[in-house]
């Protein structure tokens, strides 16, 4: 969206003194704001965001938005833990001192929706032709919904990419296109006595679930079917067995303690042939401070390999923008989202190497030029094939991931997986009943 030629669309929330926007809450100074309090023209639009390349890029551009709306913008960048803690404190107190919220649609949005902390954006998003909601990829768009309402707008997307060493797969006919081929190549290239591994990936109980999800879908499984646990299905069992064998046999020791922070350096330091993880981290393998010369010169990028059910990676909105239900500046907050997630800004940021959520930017050669060509193609294909979630869509996401991840640990350790899956399936089924009761309470 042009910040100079495009007129403002003042689709107002009504700025009612009554209701949530005028409820007693925390004012800009932190004191309680009495019902009906109106923000002055000097009150800043307050944005809370994760400290991420996307938010850093937006923060550098806020001057032009300030000139557009005639109001100062205050943008606070925090770690994910700090952000979650701040939201809990402010929103539980019906705080008015945050307007635009950067949220994880798949991690906390359902809880925020259940607590009625997010503004319903449905009419605004769908009624704004210039904003072009249909231009957003279907998978991230679907993840923005809760109970049929659009509660957030995706701004950063993420898919799993197969990172591989080109110099090691020349004799194997190139990167694996199927999971069977990946398994075969990883086992063939493993030389544990020399400290070299065919595959590295996340194996930590909860943290591995999001990456395992693509293996699950590609085996024809899912976390839930018709609202009930599906992790005990034969497809899920096959996915557990596969991932456990891949990482347990071809992977490094201590894999069950590895999250992104532990797995990524192993590939970057040239100690593994294959690695599947988020495409957003690709620059680490081109960075002289992180990757060895051999990795920088030979790293390749490929789409997620096909399993028995085809190639079904996730394509998720890792971060989205929502509006605090208690904000007194919801009109300006919506204008910020229109600007920051609009077609023009999305194209500009993707041209800088920040993967967005709009279909138009993924079909524009100019916006893809910032990525290595094989990575751009892998991202494009994964986006087309992808599902919009990488974890169970429940209120208590952390607990769900912990349950689902238990058989993963057993599989990686080489234990008998079937009884662990059976127990986890029963536990997950019981959890879903409690989770739904909590949702309805």
Automatic annotation (TrEMBL):
PROSITE patterns in the record: TAT (PS51318)
Native source species: Streptomyces durmitorensis
Name recorded for this polypeptide: Sugar ABC transporter substrate-binding protein
Record-linked InterPro entries: Bact_solute-bd_prot1, SBP, TAT_signal
